[in-house]
Amino acid sequence: MLMRTDPFRELDQLTHQLLNGSAQQGTWSRPSSMPLDAYRSGDQYVVAFDLPGVTPDAIELDVERNVLTVKAERRPPRVSDDVEMQVAERSFGIFSRQLFLGETLDTERIEATYDAGVLTLRIPIAEKAKPRKIAITGTDSQREINA
């Protein structure tokens, strides 16, 4: 199972909004969280991260000791010096998110796809963690009772 333990996430988001609410052109934001959805589908967990405007080569995935780390960099658009920015609300910079994966997940077989700004991870449940039937063997031992 997936375990999401990020006690400082709300504080991080609030700080990010306060510090970057009036960001000017060319200002890079500090690392920020990325929204995600996670659900179980059969024998796997599916995690989808929203990463609009990020190119696939700017995404990095690492798993170490059952901690999955996703880092992505959204780069600002290249504009010439004669361009005058009217509104600059999109954040740029490095975004990072960590998920703590339970022991029941197979971190060796994680699959990742990226389509239309959504990074989708498929994390299978480990074979050893799947429910299984156990065969019961025995003998019909009927004893004769000597009277």
The largest beta-sheet arranges its strands as 1-6-5-4
Q: What would you say the CATH architecture of the domain at 2-12 and 31-76 and 91-129 is?
A: Sandwich
CATH names the topology of the domain at 2-12 and 31-76 and 91-129 as Immunoglobulin-like
Structural class: mainly beta
Reported for the largest beta sheet, the result is: 4 strands, antiparallel
Number-wise, the strands total 8
Give, in order, the helices and strands: EHEEEEEEE
**Total DSSP helices:** 1
Account of the protein in words:
With 147 residues, the protein is mainly beta. The chain has a domain at 2-12 and 31-76 and 91-129: Immunoglobulin-like, CATH 2.60.40.790. Helices cover 8% and strands 34% of the residues. It has one helix and eight strands. The protein has one helix at residues 9-20, and strands at residues 2-3, 36-41, 44-50, 59-64, 67-74, 93-101, 111-115, 118-124. Strand 4 and strand 5 (67-74) form a beta hairpin. It is elongated, with a radius of gyration of 24 Å. The termini are far apart. This is HSP20 family protein. Residues 27-139 form the SHSP domain.
